[in-house]
Amino acid sequence: MTLWERIQYEFNKNSSPIRKLILVNVAIFLLASLVFGVAQLYGSKEQAKQLLSILSIPSDFPSFIKKPWTLVTYMFMHSGIRHIAGNMLMLYFLGRILLDFQSNRNFYQIYFGGGLVGAGLYLLVFNLFPSIVGGAGLSEMVGASGAVLSVVVATAVLVPNYEIFLFGAFRLKVKWIAVYLVLADILFFGNGNQGGHLAHIGGALFGGLYILYIQGRIGLNLFRRISNPFKAKYTIVDERDILRQRTVKTEKKSSNSTTGRVNSPHKPRQEEVDAILDKIGQSGYDSLSKEEKDLLFRASE
Fold first, then answer.
1. pTM, two decimal places
2. Which residues pair with 140 in a beta bridge?
3. 295 has a pLDDT exceeding 60
4. Rounded to whole angstroms, how far apart are CA atoms 279 and 215?
């Protein structure tokens, strides 16, 4: 196995979107830092900034038209260690909760949808309502904060009373974390970084509306599928995976022969899902029975 094949295998062996998103964000941050350092060493700081701005989304619409790819690439650029560390930690800890109740596909939709809506709101306000941002001139935006906040708010809308331990010291419900982050963006909007605040608000709106939509609580056809951009073009086969698949197939066949029919579980009703979510909010995910966990999994498909 070549080095490149090994890298691809390590990247694709775990299907978790959280793992893949963190790996891509960190890799791009390290590469950008290296490019910035080399450009500074052999050129100037200004030239280095111009080089990195190729991937940063500009607030000026005519400038954006010249580099439309920044609508996506800005989500993987960060301005410093604290910036990327805060985003990735929040994605890891709160994203894992959301992933317990949603499929990988839905998770990608929430993440990238939040990032795209955040960028769209940023462009819209800066170009159509410049007075809202104090007549700010040309600026550029980077960061995954809008996408991450979409995940946070989606989690809070889905399981608002889910409790987590902060610093291992006290319990805090997910909904209060989301409320604090959104209110901070609204209250401190006029204190600079208006572009970042707009992206956060746009991401938060998307995440909340997405969950309400899939729950059937709003009927607008607002969302289209966003395909997984990290889906492997080919699969590297592991013999242990094949053995596990054969074991599962054998167990299913044995179960079907015993019952005399193939099980076809019904699609869970919203009332059933809501009851389980209430139980999670009160006692935590680990309190669920195997049947309840299976029901949640079917509801997310």
1. 0.70
2. 58
3. yes
4. 18
In sequence order, which residues have a C-beta less than 8 Å from that of residue 16 and are 6 or more positions away? 99, 104
Q: For residues 94 and 164, give the distance between their C-alpha atoms in angstroms, rounded to a whole number.
A: 9
The pLDDT, as a whole number, for residue 236 is 38
Domains and CATH numbers, the chain: 3-214 (1.20.1540.10), 240-300 (no CATH)
Distance CA(280)–CA(33), nearest Å, equals 42
Q: In the chain, where do the E strands start and end?
A: 57-58, 140-141, 163-166, 170-173
Tokens for 250, please give them: 């054998």
Tell me how far apart the alpha carbons of residues 119 and 141 are, in angstroms, rounded to a whole number: 9
Dmax (CA) of the chain: 75
Number of H helices, E strands in the chain: 13, 4
What angle in degrees, to the nearest 10, is found between the helix axes of 194-214 and 174-187? 140
**Residue whose C-alpha is closest to residue 205's, from 150, 156, 143:** 150
pLDDT one-digit tens code per residue, 71-107: 999 999 998 899 999 999 999 999 999 998 998 999 9
Neighbouring C-beta atoms of residue 86, cutoff 10 Å: 16
Residues 239-275: pLDDT tens digits?
Answer: 444 445 555 555 555 555 444 444 445 667 777 777 7
